[in-house]
Write a structure and sequence with these properties.
By secondary structure, this protein is mostly helical. It has 10 helices and no strands.
């Protein structure tokens, strides 16, 4: 029997069940997924992007994608890190979820596939509650989730102007990417776990 990891915990994988046995057959993949989680949520140095802010961004990013077990996990983590801002983040996440992706292609042959959709602009009351730095991070997260091909140039400049360092921006992007992957893995494992019960 393998020790449960974060994915097992969120997906509620039974330690002695079929899904746990299947996951145990891929120990390197399992270990790397947990190592990625640990690097993002228990880093050696979080000076450029504090763990509390990471939890708040994680709650927002996962809620944008789905109202599921992964979103609930990170909502709880965010509430434990900063309950006041977590409440604002939860409301923004629920109110900003949409379908996508959206964005504009510039490449010939792809222009017809461009689609317009919602852009997140956090209002002044929420900005005041969150602080400019976190508000900018959430707007950028929304961009990464729904408009990934537009997450360059001006979007990165807005983060820099809001107090983000280059290292912090890289970590923010890594966090959002990791969460998208983790959320899909958990969703799939929950389906398998329910089917094997």
């Amino acid at each position: 029997m393998t020790t449960p990891d974060t994915v097992d915990t969120i997906a509620r994988v039974a330690p002695d069940g079929l899904v746990a046995a299947v996951r145990a057959r891929r120990p390197v993949t399992r270990a790397q997924l947990q190592a990625s989680h640990d690097a993002l949520f228990a880093p050696v140095d979080d000076a450029e992007f504090p763990v509390a802010e990471r939890a708040l961004v994680a709650a927002f990013a996962t809620r944008l994608t789905a109202d599921d077990a992964t979103a609930a996990h990170y909502a709880d983590l965010a509430a434990g890190a900063d309950a006041q801002r977590a409440a604002v983040v939860a409301a923004l996440g629920a109110g900003s979820a949409t379908t996508g992706p959206f964005g504009t292609y510039r490449e010939e042959g792809l222009v017809e596939e461009s689609t317009e959709g919602r852009r997140l602009a956090i209002d002044s009351a929420a900005r005041d509650a969150l602080g400019e730095r976190l508000a900018a991070a959430l707007e950028h997260t929304h961009l990464l989730v729904y408009r990934p091909r537009e997450a360059a140039g001006d979007a990165l400049d807005r983060l820099l102007e809001s107090g983000w360092s280059i290292d912090g921006i890289v970590t923010l992007s890594q966090l959002v990417s990791f969460l998208a992957f983790q959320q899909r893995v958990v969703a799939g494992l929950r389906v398998l776990e329910e089917a094997s019960a």
